[in-house]
Amino acid sequence: MYTRFSSRLPRLSASVRQFASATTKAPASKKRIFARRFFVWSGATAATGALVYTLLQDKEYIEDAQGAHEHVSELALHPPRGGEKNLPIVTDHLDQCKDNKEQKPRLVILGSGWGAVSVVKSMDTDKYDVTLISENNYFLFTPLLPSATVGTLELRSLLEPIRKIVRRIRGHYLEGTAVDLDINNKLVQVSGINGEEFYVPYDKLVIAVGATSITHGIEGIEHTMRLKTIHDAMEIRRKVTSNVEKACLPTTTPEERKRLLSFVVCGGGPTGIEFAAELFDWINEDLVKWFPKLIREEVAISIIQSRDHILNTFDSRISEYAEKRFERERINVYTNARVARIEEDKVVYKLKNSDPDNPTYNSIPCGLCLWSTGIAMTDFTRRLTEKLPVQAHKRVLMTDAFLHVRGVEDCSIYALGDCASIENPKLLDHIMDIFEAADENKDGTLSLEEFAKAVDHMRTRFPLTQQHLGKLMQLFKTYDADNSGTLDIDEMRKMLKDIDSKMTNLPATAQVANQQGTYLGKYLSQIAGQDENTVKHQYGPFQYRHLGTLAYLGNTAVGEFNWGYKMIGGLWAMYLWRSVYWSEQVSTRTRMNLSLDWTKRALWGRDISTV
After folding, report:
1. Domains 72-211+377-424+519-544 and 221-374 share a fold
2. Cα-to-chain-centroid distance, residue 12
3. What is the spatial distance between Cα 88 and Cα 72, in angstroms, rounded to a whole number?
4. In whole numbers, what is the pLDDT of the chain averaged over residues?
């Protein structure tokens, strides 16, 4: 046995040595592979970083900026004076090259909202020398502004720098406020952010300055807050969090705590309703986690609406759903109530259905009051209406169907958005002209063929009537009351009266301003360098296409669409609401910001800091 074991010992030791050598080689081999991969990945990362760094340097812009003063026109540095007030006239801009001799029509756009930005985005490049003037150097996505008041979205996620938008058409931007207009000399008087005033000349002018909030002469309106600008959202957010923090102090009395935590919304439109819904979300999703439980019990949200229902521009089923939802969530809704006065610590309102001789007044303690009840003219718009007799006693600038401001003879001024409205024709005032022009045989009645000519005449002369004229044969049969196969003057008068009653002004919404801006941008591109009277009849007037209306109600949404569908509640409705507004953003940057903000809110909640 010993002999056999001894004979096998060399082979066993050889196997052990072979195994030992294999085990010692394996780690060395893995180390080399790891080292090789490490250096490859490090090199790729370094190369990518170097490429990104190089791209971010924008050397071409840096090189262009060197010696730029040599290419700037002397008129841009030292503008000549002139006009009625002998102010500097900005004929050249600092970002224009003096060697560029190309002369293009000057197009001046006032405003940086939906209408102005849509004009810029839809225009052809190099058709005009465009100058955009606004006191805000950014575009604000107003439909999501209520979300910024409680931190659901960050403020800068709703902003896009206006210079980035104007750059697409090689335009210029001046930060200032349009003060007045010299129509005879085609000069816009501007007050810059430095307080100095100057003129900007124009060949064509687009007015898209928006509107301000209407006060209805209510006493104490200075105690309210508005929600139209990014600064308004900042102030509301600061006020909400500071009120809650004050309510948590041990020295705050129960009465004062109740007042601080009472939030009142004057107006039952989409803006006021969405603010109330966002505030309710913040209270139930964030306030209850981080503040004393007593605070939640003391919070009260109230809505004062002068009409029968909130969201009265929506279908009645949507209004009723919103009211029932708010009732379940203990949000107080006071309908048929009109604000009488606003004091520093309370809102006094009057019930509309009460005895006129002995009206019923009620009051609500108030720590924050949001005023959201309609729009009124800006100072610039009011001054312009005073210069044009046709615009006297108007609440907005009246335009024709091609968005020309009424009263300007050369049709060089356009207006759109909240500051303007397309003038609806009164067909009854023109009944004799329409009837006599169509009655070819002068028998006092219109046959179907003559009626067709009358309809064509109305569609051409009054473009806004197109959507109300409908199908020709059906329209003719509807108003042929005696089934005679003809329309007499009385039947024609009834038809025109019904059409007049259906003609309403377009709502002051972002959707209307966006469509008007898109239309006007393309229209201006078409008439550049051509006779406008010839082109405009080929291009056609502005026609509004209502796509639908949405409103957020707190982790759900409601809406109605142009094909007749009504969206009433459900979690999916909130995501559809988000998707629609996400798709309407003006840049990929703001879309990414919105996505990140919604994700952060879902994971970590809203920021409750007061800054």
Report:
1. yes
2. 86
3. 17
4. 88
